[in-house]
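Please check the following.

. . .
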Amino acid sequence: MSQDYTEARRDVIAYCHRMQAEHLVYSTAGNVSVRIDGELIAMTPTSFPYDALEPEDVCIVNTAGDVIDGRREPTSELPLHTLVYARRPEVGAIIHTHSPYAMTMAVLGWDLPPILTGLVEAVGGDVRNAPYSRPTTAEMADLTADALTDRGACFMRHHGLLAVGADLRHAFLAASVTEGAAKVYLDARVHQPEVPELTAEDVAWIAEWWQEQWPVAARARATA
């Protein structure tokens, strides 16, 4: 087995366990993937308990969705992952969660405004809600990819949250921080319907830190 495959598979399993530890998923819900290189992706299998995962259970697929290696079938959200990687070549990892407060936002169809500096630093601004579409369909992949434009996370209506990053660390940060910020937002609305937001100028300034994870953006800032 390729050493590159092994490292990527172990990383996927490690972040699956982190999702469990932070209660971002339950049962076999959600999925994780990481780009190995420009053409290959390691991703979780479908409907398999995270705490029972072994490296050989993590699927290796190409960007066309073909299974290259692995003893199980990939997640049913395979088209969503491959489309996001195709549209966002800078993205190196994807984490899909079914966390309680993110799912509440997804059920209500509410966008999450830029209410916290940490949220903007983690996702680049507000978190949009992708319109509803049936799970596993090409339409869901397309609508979700649209909602992710220029952001590190989006809600999926009546479904959950999708987070992306240059690597698994940044994708997990986006998922975790969005869940926390969604709780703050929902709690704040109990006290007043209009939750104060950061100014557009502050959002743009803080979002530059989020951009630092992308190599092209970092190089551009370094030479500016």
Remarks:
- Strands lie at 31-35, 40-43, 59-62, 67-69, 93-97, 128-130, 153-156, 160-165.
- The CA atoms of residues 124 and 207 lie 5 Å apart.
- Residues 217-224 have pLDDT under 50 and may be disordered.
